[in-house]
Amino acid sequence: MSAKDLPETFRPEQYDIHFIPALQKDSTGQYHFEGSETIMFRVLKPASEIVLHARGLTIDNVVVSSGESEQTIDSSLVRYDAKEQTVSIPLPYLVNPGPLSLSLHFSGNMKKGKGLYASNYKGRDGTDRVMATTQFEAAHAREAFPCLDHPAAKAKFNVSVTVDSDLEALSNASVFREIDFGNGTKMVYFEKTPPMSTYLLYLGVGEFDSISSSVNGVPLRVLTTPGKQEKGRFALEAAQKFLTFYEAYFAIPYSDSLPKLDHVAVPDFAFGAMENWGAITFREDALLCDPEKASSANKQRVVTILAHELAHMWFGNLVTMNWWDDLWLNESFADWLSYKTVDSFYPELDIWSTFMTDGVTAAYAQDSLSTSHPIHQPVDTPEDTEQLFDHISYSKGGMVLRMLEKYLGEEVFKQGLRQYLQRHKYGNAQGDDLWQAMEDVSGKLVKDLMESWISQIGYPLVDATLEGSTLRLTQQRFRYKRLDRETKWPIPLTITADGKTLDAILFTDEDQEIDLGMEPQRHLKLNAGQFGFFRVRYDPATLSQLKHAVETKELDVMDRWGLHSDQAALCLAGEISLSDYINFVEGYKNEDSYLVTKDVITSLEKIALLCSEESFVSRIHETQRTIYKSILDRLGWERQDGENETDGQLRADAIFGLGRLHDSDVIEGVNKLMSNRSSIHPDLRRAAYGIAVWSGGRERFEQMQQLYEQEEDPQERINLLRSLMGSSDGGIIDQALAYILTDKVKTQNKVYALANLIMNPQGRKHVWPWIQQHWPKIKETYADYHGHFRIILEYLSNAGDLIDAQEARTFLERDPILGTERHTLQLAEMLDINQAFLERARQNFAIP
To answer: In what order do the strands lie in the sheet with 47-53?
Structure first.
């Protein structure tokens, strides 16, 4: 039986689990736990054994009950398979179809960041304390208790736990009873859960402070380690809005499933958040923020992650994918819907711009590689699943759903989602089930439309040539290395001509001609509104008209962004020259929108880094300087009344960019800000700290290091940590690298540090040799945080001028961090692409 197949002989229906976590280290220096469970099965076919998932657990006291019969199983007969992560328990006789219960005792050691694990915090008395918490997705429930650890093996859970009397215990359902034993411990019992997958189970034990509210009778809480609860007020108020919105949107009350909803801030947490049903866990910096002190980017992060996890209460929890190859059913929907929801309540945050600049841009980049993967990616093991938590499963999937909503209409799309959830609630589904629901409400062939978008790797490039009123179209797969005419998609194509929206068409062939019914005089724009996940290349005359429409802002913001995004990608692919791209970008020098400006300056920053050792980099710096100065001249140094939230982010980008370009006025201005650090606006802190270290010496570095070690606010600590990686001095950079490996930097935050060093024009030269030199320590650090190392590999791809692709691949594959295999291939491919780009740029700017 493969890992993706459910056993034919039995299904678990209910787990009664009791945990006893020890929050003091044992004689071996480990945090130990033990427990007992009774699993109620439904035997489907005659069975001679029960095979469960278990990893790192010892199992004994096994008792099998069937009907009136009860029999103890000798522990020596229990067989463990470390490779398959299973335990086989022989049955005393052939058990016929019907009910069966299995009781056992289990024990193990807490892991690092997954399974049942320990997290450090400051207790109410100011001493160092430890809490127990869990992270089970994708396949780590098996590290905490024996189970059928498969998303389709849904069961009900009765959870109880023995803890110290002064501690609080949390789980998915509400507490219904506590028994104090009078010896300093108590037992806490939780209500039964609805049927759910094992990866959604949660247990937390520690000291918690909380704030609360309610929505339609459902208690909402934010729980934190002692003294931090008020920083959760902003998130709690947002959760009230989002839960109300989702109940109306899906037409299924949350209370149909669970009676309460907790949001738990965990000090040590590898992910942004985890959608445990009824007990969502978050990194502290992803949940806690004081809106009076937080930057607009911090507020965006908190509400977007919160909306994403709450969407999972329906998409993912109520209805769960059959197997991990349909992970996108969870993540793509939560990603798309989180932005839609945040935009409804916080329009000032301009969240769709963040979706485009961060998520969609990254998805385009990954999907331009031959080593990308389809949204629906077959996987054989849960370990393979870990590599699917990427830009494709989240942002590309979210963008494709946004395209489908536009194609079907908002109301029809919503009705399709409601029908899908009603049909499959408390069960499992796959992509075809969703398309069927959409077809039933729309009458359109949704599966035929969506199949290629979900199952094919990559995305199309549409070539558009305008001759009078005739538009000639061709499509091919876009790749940075080589375009591919063998793949095609049905493309819902929206078109504007001279500002007029034309009837949408479905472009299904490799080549197609369209009579527009008019001859555009000013401009023609395809993918109007940027609802489609594809790029467009225009004939020179049409592109020239569009550049003029950018300068005059006749094109709206989304279209100005899309046009630039396409040109930047075509430049990296060698379809247009770097000089032509820079000339095109100069049309954006007076751009005032966050979305478009952010995309332009990010693209130029990456190009400047790649060309940092070339003489022609001054040409790129000149363009950067012009755009940064335009931003700062328009916005000034201080926030103005009525200013957009995103203006603060652009101001910070301009100050940081000019500081990195050694602008003396900006460096002087930053030093003035640093003389009264507490008065620096939250939006400017990251930029100010970064330039202070970039332009300062060792004394400034050590000052910021001390501030970092004293700071308690999680978001401010990250700002300070990032600044430590921003020096332009080689000796200080080496000191910063050494600091990353110390316990002063939490494992979950080391990725921020390394990413900032890689994007430092001076620091980037040090990172790859340092990784090679310290590989054993780095591998140990990221063995349980391999998702973070995948992010580091993604950033390293920007160093194509410094790292040989084959050397990097050979090194990383010789002694790999498991779970990073695909990203190693993507790093090597991207390094090759960037090196080829650099060679073309050298020829482009060669002096005759």
So the answer is: 47-53, 86-95, 79-81
